[in-house]
Amino acid sequence: MSLFQPIGQKRLTNIAVVRYKKGGKRFEIACYKNTVGAWRSGAEKDINEVLQTTTVFDNVSKGVVAKKDLLKKVFGTADEEAVCRKILEEGAMQVSDKEREMHFDNLYRDVANVLVEKCVNPENGRPYPLELLERSLKDVHFSVDPNKTAKQQALDFLPQLQKSIPIERAWMRLSIQVSQSAQDELLGELQAMKSRVESKKTEASRLFVTCALEPSCFRRCDQFVRSLPEGGGQLEVVALAIQGSSSMPEIFDVARPSDTSDATARVCSDSRQGNVASQAEPRPVPAPAVKSGGRVFKCNTCGVEYTVANEHREHYKSKWHSFNQKLKSKGLPAVSEAEFDMDPLMGEEKNDLDEF
């Protein structure tokens, strides 16, 4: 039987090494994992939360400490904290396999998040769920580049993604005001950029225009407003990305039945085949109605009202209500019951939002 004795050896279990080479010499410092990036981005201000110790090493793994006269010769100072700050800023971080894998996973998800925020499905004007976009990126064999930002990679890879699913950049909404002398010039410029003018009014000899246009045209529009004489024009970004069902044409006409109705007429639209068919579907028979005595039950999430308590309770158990709750948690607009039932792509989105 052997007896295991404790040893006085410190093992490098939670250390990230930052290495710096200068003047033919190598210097290393010991940091906590996943803190160097936060320090360089400015998210972490306390250097004590980044460094394991302010000691500067020649070799961290062997515990060889750098000599102070060598620090003064190379860095011009023997202050170890000042030397650590310089190494943190300019040194090369030694990343383990797990840390590198985690960084790539986070960057991959950031690319998908950029697509959610800046792109929409052109068929209904709504953004895709995050999980659906991540699967689509894998289907087209997207690989992240650690030397590029998430936004740059997302927009560069968008043409490849369009071959797999219908997706496009969401338009921007701008508010522009110019003097009446520049009115014709502004409208001609907006027409050349194929923008959509949503509202136009004249007040106090100035023209106020609210329009939607493609993001690629924003720089051109901004340069036009800046080129006007001083005080002649002003541009304001109302929305960086227009998302939601408000931009989708009204193609549904669903009559909501009364409490005593046995059936409801539904209009089904198939946008892919162009076939339209009307049919009567019986509404599920609810439990015996409990009259509320004139009270109105309202769901703020879906924007509907009920006068029967049982119907109100059943609504909170419906998939439509759950779907709108998940949209609301992501800051997205709710959909109507007609859109939930009729949209040909909604069935796919229902499943994806379970993990959205």
From TrEMBL:
Please list the GO terms describing molecular function. Answer: zinc ion binding
List the Gene3D superfamilies hit by this protein, alphabetically.
3.30.70.240, Ribosome maturation protein SBDS, N-terminal domain, SBDS protein C-terminal domain, subdomain 1
List, alphabetically, the GO terms of the cellular component aspect: cytoplasm; nucleus
What biological-process terms (Gene Ontology) are attached?
Answer: cytosolic ribosome assembly
Superkingdom to which the source organism belongs: Eukaryota
PANTHER family listed in its UniProt record: RIBOSOME MATURATION PROTEIN SBDS
The record's comment on protein family reads: Belongs to the SDO1/SBDS family.
| UniProt-listed NCBIfam families | RNA_SBDS (TIGR00291)
Q: What is this protein called?
A: C2H2-type domain-containing protein
